[in-house]
Specification:
Blueprint (H helix, E strand, L loop, with lengths): L1 H16 L9 E5 L2 E3 L4 E5 L4 E5 H8 L5 E5 H12 L10 E6 L3 E7 L2 E2 L31 H4 L1 H9 L11 H4 L3 H9 L3 H25 L3 E6 L5 H15 L3 H4 L3 E4 L5 H11 L1 H4 L5
Parallel strand pairs: 1-5, 6-9, 9-10
Antiparallel strand pairs: 2-3, 3-4, 6-7, 7-8
Helix pairs in contact: 3-11, 5-8, 7-8, 8-9
Bound molecules: zinc ion (ZN).
């Protein structure tokens, strides 16, 4: 309720600031978690601590008569990739978008369609275990891919403790971002570089599984970690080559989508302006 009210206030403020310039055609919201699009229920968003929250109903009270679309972040990023290129190019029939942030979102396109599954929760590669006794994940399990490669995982590795724990953290820990870590690595901080390099290796190992499972023509990677791509690319590629099952799979093209392209935001826009991409194809 608090989120809906605060979001409502901010959205109305943004709309009124743009009054006369543009109008509001609808609202697209991207959630770091599983979303049932039909009912508008956020089924499970570990990063937010939300389970079975009927977000749509709450927002509809705030915005009567406005169309509201909710989508999972990995899927929205995948949609943004199709939308921003208007579906052009041969690379858009089978591809995967991996969004590395506080969590890990994955959107999978196969045969030109976003894979949703029966409950719109397909593509949760972030919770496939890399190890059954690895670090604790936001979902409550151990050793998920996300628990090895999210920004929180990288920062935790740097500080040598789990920074996701809901205990008060010293200010130098709680105010320290992944961008800070990347610039320290660039400045020659060996510990920061080591933390990034391990993330790169785990990212590559997980990507190898995704590539083995989907055989995509391209893998897109978004999120803050892409700022460090020049430093981590060799480790990512090495891990992919090590664990993909054929030589061809090992050479799957990887494309970086920098934060300046705002894939999540574009995905939210695509939900409103390009429902043709967002909706399943009807035969
Ligand atoms: Zn998990």
């Amino acid at each position: 309720d608090e989120f809906a009210a605060s979001f409502g206030w901010q959205a109305r403020k943004a709309i009124s600031e743009q009054a006369g310039v543009t109008s509001c055609d609808g609202i697209g919201i991207v959630i770091p978690g599983m979303v049932d699009r039909a009912s508008g229920i956020v089924i499970n968003a570990p990063a937010l601590g939300w389970k079975n929250v009927n977000l749509l109903e709450r927002l509809q009270k705030e915005f009567e008569g406005t169309e509201i679309h909710l989508e999972n972040s990995g899927k929205a990023c995948a949609l943004s990739q199709v939308w921003s290129t208007h579906g052009a190019g041969s690379g858009h029939n089978d591809f995967v978008f991996v969004s590395v942030s506080d969590g890990l979102g994955v959107g999978v396109f196969i045969n030109g369609e976003l894979v949703r599954g029966r409950h719109n929760t397909a593509g949760e590669f972030g919770h496939v275990p890399l190890s059954i006794d690895g670090p604790i994940c936001s979902c409550g399990a151990n050793g998920c891919w996300e628990a090895y490669v999210s920004n929180i995982a990288t920062l935790s590795r740097y500080f040598g403790k789990n920074t996701a724990l809901k205990q008060p953290q010293p200010i130098e820990v709680s105010n320290f971002t992944i961008e800070d870590l990347i610039s320290r690595a660039r400045g020659g901080d060996g510990k920061a570089l080591a933390a990034l390099n391990l993330t790169a290796r785990y990212l590559g190992l997980g990507l190898a599984s995704v590539i083995n499972a989907v055989d995509p023509s391209t893998v897109y990677i978004g999120g803050e970690i892409t700022e460090a791509w020049d430093m981590i690319e060799p480790q990512v590629r090495e891990a992919i080559e090590e664990r993909t099952l054929t030589k061809e799979l090992g050479t799957t093209p990887i494309r970086i989508v920098p934060a300046t392209e705002h894939p999540r935001l574009l995905g939210a826009v695509a939900l409103v302006t390009a429902p043709a991409y967002a909706a399943p194809k009807v035969a």
